[in-house]
Design goal:
By secondary structure, the chain is mainly beta. It has 1 helix and 6 strands, in the order αββββββ. Strands 1-6-3 form a 3-stranded antiparallel sheet, with no helix packed on it. Strands 2-5-4 form a 3-stranded antiparallel sheet, with no helix packed on it.
Length: 107
């Protein structure tokens, strides 16, 4: 385990760039974001909007995985680039939809 090291090509060294954990995490979330989702259904269909912060670097591949036994399914209906808002629709036969959402904008 090693930290605080910067390797560069060439004969001239540049000043070391110190980044906080929060800055590094924000940079990483531009490429990949993963979160849990819970929708309380008061009817058979629910709509949810999720805003991604920070904005993804490109339009991500979005996958949704329902939690086993939640009795419902959900799918991405739309993704608005710029504001990075994901809209989900849940069609349920129970009162809750649980799931995991993964947004991947890797190179």
């Amino acid at each position: 385990f090693m930290t605080g090291v910067q390797m560069e090509l060439g004969p001239t060294a540049t000043e070391f760039e110190h980044r906080t954990y929060g800055d590094e995490l924000r940079s990483c979330k531009r490429y990949y974001n993963h979160f849990n989702m819970l929708i309380d259904n008061d009817a058979w269909t629910s709509i949810l909007e999720q805003i991604l912060v920070p904005s993804m670097r490109a339009i991500p591949t979005i996958t949704t995985t329902p939690v086993a036994g939640s009795g419902a399914t959900f799918a991405v209906v739309s993704f608005a680039r710029g504001s990075d808002i994901i809209v989900y629709q849940s069609v349920a036969n129970s009162e809750q939809t649980n799931g995991v959402v993964t947004c991947d904008a890797e190179l």
